[in-house]
Design brief:
This protein has a single domain, classed as NinB (NinB fold, Orthogonal Bundle). Helices cover 52% and strands 10% of the residues. The protein has 5 helices and 4 strands. It has a two-stranded antiparallel ribbon with strand order 1-2. A two-stranded antiparallel sheet has the order 3-4. Helix 2 packs across helix 3, helix 2 packs parallel to helix 4 and helix 2 packs antiparallel against helix 5.
Length: 145
């Protein structure tokens, strides 16, 4: 903080300044890790979707799993009294006939939210029977170096 204050004092002497203080956003390593985890879930989990008469077995692509799991993560965080900094929302369609869902975006995750999302993916993966490969762990090890 002392170093920051010194920069501010120096900048003010040069004229007007704009200082923005913000939370640390997620790291690239976190982003890579949850994308690898979503690919592993996609490759291993067959989703049973209720259907008319008989349930259907479907395998979703990673982008579908991402949408489903980000939504589930957001709902869980809200239920625990810790809503996301930038939650999803429903907005009326242009014609006003239906609602359009704008899901929470991982691009807006802060460092803690991304960390919590990774833990959430581990937990859900275990529930779904995912056997995590070494790839996700390698990303974590690389990030620590």
């Amino acid at each position: 903080m002392v170093a920051v204050w010194g920069l501010v004092v120096e900048a003010v002497q040069g004229g007007d300044i704009l200082l923005i203080v913000t939370e640390i956003s997620k790291s690239r390593a976190q982003e890579r890790k949850y994308h690898v985890m979503l690919k592993e879930i996609s490759a291993q989990v067959v989703f049973t979707r209720p259907g008319i008469g008989q349930a259907q077995q479907v395998r979703y692509k990673p982008d579908v799993w991402k949408a489903l799991l980000v939504d589930a993560f957001e709902q869980e965080k809200a239920a625990m009294g810790e809503p996301l900094a930038k939650p999803g929302r429903l907005i009326p369609s242009i014609d006003g006939v239906r609602l359009v869902s704008i899901r929470a975006s991982t691009a807006d995750f802060r460092k803690k939210e991304a960390s919590d999302f990774i833990e959430f993916l581990y937990a859900r993966g275990v529930e779904y029977g995912v056997r995590w490969s070494a790839t996700a762990e390698q990303i974590t090890a690389e990030a620590r170096q």
